[in-house]
Amino acid sequence: MDLLTRVSVLSRFGHALSDETRTQVLLALKDEPRYPAELADALGVTRQKLSNHLACLRGCGLVVAVPEGRRTRYELADNNIGQALDDLLKVVLAVDPTCCPASTAEDCC
User: Fold this and answer.
1) What are the pLDDT digits (tens) for 54-90?
2) Which of 63, 56, 58, 108 is nearest to 82 (CA)?
3) Which residues fall within 8 angstroms of residue 36, CB to CB, at 6 or more apart?
4) How would residue 109 be classed by pLDDT, with cut points 50, 70 and 90?
5) Mean pLDDT, residues 35-47
6) CA-based diameter of the chain, in Å?
7) Which of 6, 19, 34, 78 is the most exposed place for a label (fewest CB within 10 A)?
8) Residue 77 · residue 84 · CB < 8 Å
9) 3-77 topology per CATH
10) Domains of the chain by residue range
11) Distances from the Cα of 62 to the Cα of 22, 25, 69, 102, angstroms
């Protein structure tokens, strides 16, 4: 993979994480696939706002929509994304342990 491609991929990931709601969605989907109504309720956002964030995350290639009859379930596009989120949190805590009140990455999630 050339440099420009790597920059583009990481920029998309950074854009996804630049919004707290999108980050919450990714962390929620790391644990299990979810339906939009469940996610909206769990995150305390309107379904319309959640829909916009899911569209962004789909556009970034981080989540996929899986049709199930009349419903659509969302999940991470790849299990490596969940691991990357865990690893990124560990790196941030290693660089600045005061950024999170908990002492380990697992406690923060």
Assistant:
1) 999 999 999 999 999 999 999 999 999 999 999 998 9
2) 63
3) 47, 50, 51, 54, 72, 74
4) very low
5) 97
6) 46
7) 6
8) no
9) Arc Repressor Mutant, subunit A (1.10.10)
10) 3-77, 79-109
11) 11, 11, 23, 27
Contact partners, residue 37, CB within 8 Å, separation at least 6: 47
What does the pLDDT read at residue 17?
94
Rounded average pLDDT over 14-23? 94
